[in-house]
């Protein structure tokens, strides 16, 4: 059994939404034994069958996420709260995709707050820095160290 699988999700042609694929490129060749990265791009559902066939102990999902925080912020999002956060790169909610696995696989969702979206292949400096931070954490297996996401409950 793999120790961890990293799903890198995003659209590399939509500026900061390409954080996941950028992370995949950054991790290439630098992962410790037992950790595998997958470039899911915009179709994480294509990776459900391999996940079912060879489940890791931990699945770490990394994607750009609109969380209402400062650009480049990284948050650990509980699977149950992923419906409250906007992930634009894929159509199906992560909670729907991954619900069948939550009793057998530890699922960690890391969101990176984008600064800009729209056509382009370059990441903003804030998101590029966040990708480096996430890459370093993954190579050290420290994905649990990120702050948890909390919906903004301030009065409106």
Keywords:
156 residues, alpha/beta, Rossmann fold, five-stranded mixed β-sheet, 4 helices, globular
Short précis:
The protein is of the alpha/beta class. 22% of the residues lie in helices and 20% in strands.
Layout of secondary structure:
Blueprint: E1 4-9, H1 19-27, E2 35-41, H2 48-53, E3 58-64, E4 74-77, H3 94-98, E5 106-112, H4 125-139
Parallel strand pairs: 1-2, 1-3, 3-5
Antiparallel strand pairs: 4-5
Helix pairs in contact: 1-4
- Indicate the CATH class: Alpha Beta
The largest sheet, given as strand count, sense and whether it forms a barrel, is:
5 strands, mixed
What fold name stands as the CATH topology?
Answer: Rossmann fold
What order do the strands of the largest sheet run in, or round the barrel if closed? Answer: 2-1-3-5-4
Number of beta strands: 5
DSSP helix fraction: 10-25%
Strand content: 15-25%
Helix-strand sequence: EHEHEEHEH
Give the low-pLDDT segments. Answer: none
The CATH homologous superfamily name equals HybD-like
Number of helices: 4
Distance between the termini: 47 Å
